[in-house]
Amino acid sequence: MTDTFLDVKGLTIDIPVGGGTLHAVRGIDFELKRGEVLCIVGESGSGKSLTSLALMGLLGRRIKVRAERMDFDGTALLDASPRQMRSLRGARMSMIFQEPMTSLNPAYTIGDQLMEAMLLHRDVSRAEARARAVDLLEKVGITAAASRLGQYPHQLSGGLRQRVMIAMALMCGPELIIADEPTTALDVTIQAQILRLLVDLVREMGMAMILITHDLGVVARVADKVAVMYAGELVETGLAADVFRAPMHPYTRGLLRCIPQPGKSRRGEPLGTIRGIVPSLVGEVSGCVFRTRCDEAVAACRGTIPQHWPGDGHAFRCVHASGARIAEQEGA
Amino acid sequence: MANTTVDPLLEEIIGPTPGQLLRKRVFGHQGLMIGAVVLVLITLVALFAPQLAPHDPYAQSLVARMKPPVFLGGTWEHPLGTDHLGRDYLSRLIYGARVSLMIGAIAAAISGVIGTAMGVAAGYFGGRVDAVVTFLINVRLAMPVVLVALAVVAILGGSLTVVIMVLGFLLWDRFAVVMRASTRQVREREYVAAARAIGASTPRLLLTEIMPNILNNLIVVVTLEMAHAILLEAALSFLGLGVQPPTPSWGLMVSEGKNMMLFEPWLVLIPGAVLFVMVLAINLMGDGLRDVTAPENRN
Amino acid sequence: MLDAAKTPPALELRNITKTYTVKQGLIGKRRPLTAVRDVSLKLEKGEVLGLVGESGCGKSTLAKILLGLEPPTSGEVLVDGQALGVQDRLALARRIQPIFQDPYSSLNPRKSIADIVSLPLRIHGIGDAASQQKAVRDMLDVVGLPPRVMNTFPSQMSGGQRQRVAIARALIMKPEIVICDEPTSALDVSVQSQILNLLGDLRAEFGLTYLFISHNLAVVEHLATRVAVMYLGRIVEDVSSDDLFDASAHPYTQALLQSVLTPEPGLGVPDTQLGMAYPNPIDPPSGCGFHPRCRHATNLCSAQAPRPVPHRDGHVECHLHDPETAMFGTD
Ligand SMILES: Nc1ncnc2c1ncn2[C@@H]1O[C@H](COP(=O)(O)OP(=O)(O)O)[C@@H](O)[C@H]1O
Ligand SMILES: Nc1ncnc2c1ncn2[C@@H]1O[C@H](COP(=O)(O)OP(=O)(O)O)[C@@H](O)[C@H]1O
Ligand SMILES: [Mg+2]
Ligand SMILES: [Mg+2]
Q1: For the ABC transporter domain, which residue ranges apply (chain A) (predicted)?
Q2: Rounded CA separation B125/B183 (Å)
Q3: Which atom of ligand 1 is nearest to the CA of A62?
Q4: How does pLDDT run across C43-74, given as a tens digit for each residue?
């Protein structure tokens, strides 16, 4: 397929820790076409940030990243030299982080930080970079953009800072944007605005986006494709429409039940929960990692877990082949 | 790894207690361990000076003046030789450890109490208290320590007590600055608000909620100021305004040896070297403590 | 009805204003910041009042005033009809307890869980060491923690567990009122639902009254019987939860409702039409504080602050809904 421009197969991330190896990410596969939005969703600690940092080549040498394949538009990211990676980062792929305050440098003006990547990667004059910065700030909805260039990050509100981060990520016209929980630290009202902005920009500029979140509400509204991640594995993947219409994996269904929905979930009625927490991944990990928290766990969950394809491109890993049984019950 | 049956609840308590974690970090920190071992040795030497010293540090002997140490051809009678009055250099060095440690510890304790009280009060109460303390800190920082100490000692006359007092009352500035900043930080933590909402009194808040959480910074400053005081004492004694002869202080020994430095350099080098080792050990320990007591908050 | 008139509300705010003085920049001059502006609010016994609004609108300030942690600049707080100033601090602490947002900063990292949960008992001198230990064990059981966590430290726990500890500490003295200041905002959705369920169960079990603060209307709506919407230091709408969906009036309430992202694919991200004008409490807009972000704003809105008018069984502050000014607003 020529238009699959990000192709990841068997991505594995191991972290040596005191007393063993933390198998933080274990053999995950996904692919992305231009113009698509892929959402990776899962609780904190499931390895979402590590995955995105691995794609950007930003993990330290201590952390071992392996993959059968990790290609960005024909470039094998794992074999790329540090120089090649640097010329990709910020230019053709860029990242937006959760906490805009810590990812903006408090000592430099917004303008300097916006222009930096462009001056580094593209052969442009300062005036041109500046013009682009103003242009993009306006595009992300910041008024009086030219006068903002001289401001420092602390002079902006959280929502504005996140817009600046987005503008910064767009400076060089990247083909891929990785947004790691870009709205988790923001108010819901601001979250809606920022997500809308991101989706519009991705469509307009024909970029691809990987959006990382722990909120299925966000996923439902922005994703073309969903990858549900649990404890370092993708337990369910597919088109957003399919996954939300018929969630198959008990974890996906559990996450959906947790969300309070005004007007839908009855007030005062208990919400669904997933008991326990993400298990420790130090040492050998075998069988289904979700079995310790799963209400449908059986003895077979300790063995090899088969993968099922309930639909075109919709896949999940579970010993229960017909997760649909329970999904229908719940839909009723 | 023991990964047989996983009890989901058991797994939820993660990792060692802060105490265990601290122990592991302390014993895994080379600099801290080296500094601590050296300091413990020096302290033991100081404590058991009467038992360890081969001679009376004050006993003069005009026939045995300026004997060289063994490694320069001296005898084992005086392993580090003797000074210009024929006093055993090793014994004086051993007793000198007492003086240095005492000055360091007491001066750091006095300034620690003053500085911590001021800093914690300023950080916790803010407002006018903070303004006053900040002013006092600035006044103190504007005074050159050595010159003020010299002036006071010159007026009051040098003695161990005067030196300790002067240093104790001069070196509180770093305590105040650091404690003020850490208190301001900790005061904003929600557990302090929670304790207030429970009805805890202010002294209780300061003692049980604030102090334990700024203690790590305090310990680091204590080590730094101890080293600072020891060096200042040496400087004062060297200038003849510190501890008065015949008290064996390392600074004084350097001072007394300086006249003979060209002919008998070891008279200066030996006390200089132990001073250097001791200050280095204290600083290694301070740095190490700063590393290992970084807040337990993981993630 | 008669009875209700006799029992005073568990907690009442009368014309509370809180003004801080802030310094802008290094050499900036001191300026007043009004975090809470003439707010009156009642918390009836046994109800769950949700307080919702964007960060910086003054929710936590209000909570601190209720807890007696900050004195109001003006106005009074009444507990069971009695002025807060009159009540003894310790007596107040027995009746009102907080649960805070950040489970990583609300527990003292140097203390064991047993110490943290038993602190209220020790401060109030309730029982001896043995009975305190037993009370702690029972309370931990109530919030769903096994007794063996007693000797562990906060750093050994997950965010959800820490929040359970904070709840145990708040409830160990059997208070009547619990002020929950964004208790789930720092948690994963899966853990949030556990904590919300727990808070719901505890309310039933102990007959608690909650003030539940959040910036997420979906979370507030799930627990609350009544919702107060706060904007820039004012309660702009006060509505019963049953009316929230169909009959809430204020444009800001509607924007908050809209911005809740339910997991329904195909709907896309809603357009809240809130615009970019973020409110700055140091320099509040003239007239209605919300007018720069309001799609219905008229000249009147920037000129004159709306007054509270009754709406259903609550009130709303909006010119659109004030019969006297609505006619000017709609043309
Ligand atoms: N540098 C690191 N050293 C050790 N463990 C790490 C490191 N980075 C992440 N981890 C661990 O890897 C797991 C996955 O982390 P992360 O990718 O940040 O999760 P997520 O983004 O999904 O919340 C967690 O258990 C985390 O503690
Ligand atoms: N101690 C304080 N000093 C100065 N300003 C404060 C203080 N506490 C809160 N504020 C200001 O008051 C406003 C309301 O804050 P807060 O009550 O914390 O809002 P919320 O809880 O709704 O996010 C904010 O603008 C905040 O900056
Ligand atoms: Mg993350
Ligand atoms: Mg708040």
Answers
A1: 6-256
A2: 10
A3: 1
A4: 999 899 999 998 889 999 999 999 888 899 99
Distances (CA, A) of B171 to A329, B143, B154, C243: 74, 11, 19, 66
Into how many domains does chain B fold? Answer: 1
Name chain A's partners: 3 or more CB pairs within 8 A: B, C
Question: What is residue C212's predicted lDDT score, i.e. its pLDDT?
Answer: 95
Atom of ligand 2 nearest to the CA of C36: 14
Q: What CATH number corresponds to the domain at position C219?
A: 3.40.50.300
User: How buried is C5 (Cβ within 10 angstroms: 0-12 exposed, 13-18 middle, 19+ buried)?
Assistant: exposed
pLDDT for residue C176:
93
Q: What is the pLDDT of residues B258-297, one digit of tens each?
A: 878 778 888 888 888 888 998 899 888 888 888 777 654 3
Cα dist from C87 to B204, C16, C42, C126, C171, whole Å: 21, 18, 18, 20, 20
Alpha-carbon gap, residue C320 to A255, rounded angstroms: 40
Quote the pLDDT of residue B235: 85
Q: What radius of gyration do chain A's Cα atoms show? A: 21
Read off the pLDDT of residues B8-56 as tens digits, 9 standing for 90 and up. Answer: 444 455 667 777 777 888 887 888 899 999 999 999 988 888 888 788 8
Secondary structure class of B258 (helix, strand, coil): helix
B165-188 average pLDDT score: 92
The dihedral over CA atoms of A197, A198, A203, A204, expressed in degrees to the nearest 10, equals 60
Mutate to test the pocket of ligand 2, among C19, C23, C37, C60 (most ligand atoms within 8 A of CB): C60
What number is the ipTM of this complex? 0.85
- Asked whether residue B58 is assigned to any structural domain, the reply reads yes
User: How far is it, in rounded angstroms, from Cα C112 to Cα B17?
Assistant: 9
β-pairing verdict for A64-66 and A37-41: unpaired
Residue A16 in 3-state DSSP?
strand
Closest-CA residue of chain B to A286: B3
How many domains would you assign to chain C?
A: 1
pLDDT tier for residue B121 given thresholds of 50, 70 and 90: very high
Q: Is C273 on the interface with B (CB under 8 A)?
A: no
Contact A272/C258, CB-based, under 8 Å? Answer: no
User: Count of CB contacts below 8 A, A vs B?
Assistant: 26
Q: How far is the CA of C282 from the centre of ligand 2 (A)?
A: 11
Q: Ligand 2: distance of its center to the CA of B299 in Å?
A: 26
Structure tokens at A325: 């049984």
Which residue of chain A comes nearest to C252, CA vs CA? A189
The parts of chain A modelled with pLDDT lower than 50 are: 1, 324-325, 327-328, 330-332
Q: Scanning the structure block, which residue is given the tokens 């300091």?
A: B39
**Token duo for residue C107:** 């527990």
* Mean pLDDT for the stretch of residues B183-197: 90
CATH number at residue B164: 1.10.3720.10
Listed in sequence order, the residues at least 6 apart from C295 whose beta carbon sits closer than 8 Å to its beta carbon are C251, C273
Domain range enclosing B199:
38-297
**Å from CA of C54 to ligand 1 middle:** 30
Do the domain assignments include residue B78?
Answer: yes
Q: In Å, how far is C285's CA from the nearest CA of chain B?
A: 30
Return d(Cα B160, Cα B251) in angstroms, integer. Answer: 12
Is B31 inside any structural domain? no
Q: Which residues of chain C have pLDDT under 70?
A: 1-6, 24-28, 86-87, 277, 327-331
Which residue range forms the structural domain that includes residue C141? 4-328
> Which pLDDT belongs to residue A324?
44
Asked if the structure places residue B24 within a domain, the reply is: no
DSSP letter string, B201-249: -HHHIIIIIIHHHHHHHHHHHHHHHHHHHHHHHHHHHHTTSSSPTTS--
Q: Give, using CA atoms, the residue closest to atom 2 of ligand 2.
A: C20
pLDDT of amino acid B1: 34
Domains of chain A: residue spans and CATH = 36-52+82-92+174-331 (3.40.50.300)
